Amino acid sequence: MGYWKDIVVGGWSLVEGMKVTGRALFKPVVTVQYPRQRLELSPAYRGHIELKVFPETGTHGCIACGTCQRVCPSGVIKVQGVKQHARGGKVATHYVIDFTRCSLCGLCVESCPTQTLQFSTEYEMEGPSRWDGVVDLVTRMEESRS
Amino acid sequence: MAEHFAEPVRQHLYSLNLGPQHPSTHGVLRILLTLDGEYIVEADPVIGYGHRGHEKMGENRTYLQFMPNTSRIDYLSGLLFNHGFCLAVEKLAGIEPPERARYIRVICAELNRISSHLLWFGTYLMDLGAFTPFLYCFDDRENILDILDRVSGSRLTYSYCRFGGVTRDIDDVFIEQTRAFVKRLRSRWKDYHNLVTKNVIFIHRTRDVGVIDKDLARRFGVTGPNLRAAGVPFDMRKVEPYEVYDRFDFQIPVGEKGDALDRYRVRLEEMEQSCRIIEQALDQLPDGPYRQERVRLKVKPPRGEVYFAFESARGLTAYYLVSDGSPYPYRCHVRVPSFGNLHCLTEVFRETLVADAISILGSIDIVVPEIDR
Ligand code: SF4
Ligand code: SF4
């Protein structure tokens, strides 16, 4: 008896399973056809870092203090600056990041005293060479402004 | 079969490498099997392919700089590992996060636990040869990733917790999405049970397969759902409630025999319990700041040591930190559950079929990078 019962119950379980798959046929498609369709990015999205442009000054606010360089766990950031006036503070002239090593933790953004860093919303950053990940953010900012 | 194994001279033994690139080893794990026909005589897991030196890295960087590492130790429950590390350092340095932050962390951690279990559900059934459930549970899991992505900015390696809070506050949309997700997941149980739990092929491949009983579990330090499937209600969230877990009403699901089917049942039930925790936490969610006023970028804990154990998706996980008063930990050790879970296989695999070995390996839910770390 147990033998036949097994066959009937087992067979029926397969039919039940097929019913679930069958119903799924008539449900709306959940996948998004990237790159023809795109999703909205999350407001917290973390791309690589970039320098914010403040409208009051028309430029970034980086004072080349090096806090972000020190706090970065992966050694992504190299920042250099010069004093523009004898008594003024420093201003960054070079801000080089190696995005291939970035762990996207956000510590640099949180630690910046002038809050001049933010995450960019770029996400298609593939390239054939590892040097494609090395970007000078100051140059990048100037290019984007012109 | 017993007399078959008792043969004094085994002439027909041969070795087989399971892995390191086998699809069901979930990472880079190699198991050296000694076979007698289709039966396994001896199994010898070889680990260490994915060693990245996380513990050493932890000693060479400040406490906060180690935070992104923690979610890479176990990439499937990254937020749980973040959370645990955060709690360990907070205990060591005496930092008190605000109430709201505690609730946010618990909600996100439980979401992460569900996502980890859902992924296990999919991949385990894929190991057993069923492809469809994988697509269904990834559909559900995608919802969690979207929800967590909205608040933390990442989908897998979150780095969401900070000492004394979290990086971003949650908003009404988050709460709404989370409630909708819990409702959706509950409505899916029926489909899951019809599709998998009642399926005759699934039952035959898991019932009485790979029994890890209480005694074996104790000897090898097996924890998590694998231990609970053996009937031991051991869960750090109940045994030593941390964060705000003592304020929620939830059960610890246990199995009876400790076979693969019990492990499956325990995990499914755990997802339901996580849903209950999330709902209660959302109901009780207090207003207030989501992190401390002053952001702690450099913590300098006093001299001393801390051992902090918490429940990750795979079992008892712990951080052991020794501080010498500097901003760098003197020693940073991570206790991972998968190590014990994997090594009991040397006993469990004995005298089973190779086909069952795949089922057992999948059912204990190992994450190999966590073992290698
Ligand atoms: S996000 Fe983290 S890893 Fe990336 S540059 Fe900033 S601090 Fe470094
Ligand atoms: S922390 Fe801010 S101000 Fe200082 S170097 Fe980095 S970007 Fe510039």
UniProtKB/TrEMBL annotation, chain A:
InterPro entries per record: 4Fe4S_Fe-S-bd (IPR017896), 4Fe4S_Fe_S_CS (IPR017900), NADH_quinone_OxRdtase_chainI (IPR010226)
Family named by the database record: Belongs to the complex I 23 kDa subunit family.
Record bears the keyword Aminoacyl-tRNA synthetase: no
One GO CC term, this protein: plasma membrane
Cell compartment(s), UniProt: Cell membrane
Function (record text): NDH-1 shuttles electrons from NADH, via FMN and iron-sulfur (Fe-S) centers, to quinones in the respiratory chain. The immediate electron acceptor for the enzyme in this species is believed to be ubiquinone. Couples the redox reaction to proton translocation (for every two electrons transferred, four hydrogen ions are translocated across the cytoplasmic membrane), and thus conserves the redox energy in a proton gradient.
PANTHER family: NADH DEHYDROGENASE UBIQUINONE IRON-SULFUR PROTEIN 8, MITOCHONDRIAL (PTHR10849)
Reactions accelerated catalytically: a quinone + NADH + 5 H(+)(in) = a quinol + NAD(+) + 4 H(+)(out)
Annotated membrane topology: Peripheral membrane protein
Residue stretches making up the 4Fe-4S ferredoxin-type domain: 53-82, 93-122
Cofactor requirement: [4Fe-4S] cluster
Keyword set, alphabetical order: 4Fe-4S, Cell membrane, Iron, Iron-sulfur, Membrane, Metal-binding, NAD, Quinone, Repeat, Translocase, Ubiquinone
Any Pfam family the entry gives: Fer4_7
E.C. designation(s): 7.1.1.-
Molecular function per GO: 4 iron, 4 sulfur cluster binding; iron ion binding; NADH dehydrogenase (quinone) (non-electrogenic) activity; quinone binding
Protein known as: NADH-quinone oxidoreductase subunit I
Cofactor note (record): Binds 2 [4Fe-4S] clusters per subunit.
Domain of life: Bacteria
Iron-sulfur is among the record's keywords: yes
TrEMBL record, chain B:
A Pfam family per the record: Complex1_49kDa
NADH-quinone oxidoreductase subunit D domain sequence ranges: 127-373
Example of a GO cellular component annotation carried by this entry: plasma membrane
Gene3D superfamilies named among the record's database cross-references: Cytochrome-c3 Hydrogenase, chain B (1.10.645.10)
GO terms of molecular function: NAD binding; NADH dehydrogenase (quinone) (non-electrogenic) activity; quinone binding
First-tier enzyme category under EC: translocase
Reaction it catalyzes: a quinone + NADH + 5 H(+)(in) = a quinol + NAD(+) + 4 H(+)(out)
Subcellular location: Cell membrane
Stored InterPro entries: NADH_Q_OxRdtase_suD, NDH1_su_D/H, NiFe-Hase_large
Protein's membrane topology: Peripheral membrane protein
Annotated EC: 7.1.1.-
HAMAP family found in the cross-reference section: NDH1_NuoD
Assembly behavior: NDH-1 is composed of 14 different subunits. Subunits NuoB, C, D, E, F, and G constitute the peripheral sector of the complex.
Family classification: Belongs to the complex I 49 kDa subunit family.
Function: NDH-1 shuttles electrons from NADH, via FMN and iron-sulfur (Fe-S) centers, to quinones in the respiratory chain. The immediate electron acceptor for the enzyme in this species is believed to be ubiquinone. Couples the redox reaction to proton translocation (for every two electrons transferred, four hydrogen ions are translocated across the cytoplasmic membrane), and thus conserves the redox energy in a proton gradient.
Protein name: NADH-quinone oxidoreductase subunit D
Source organism (scientific name): Desulfacinum hydrothermale DSM 13146
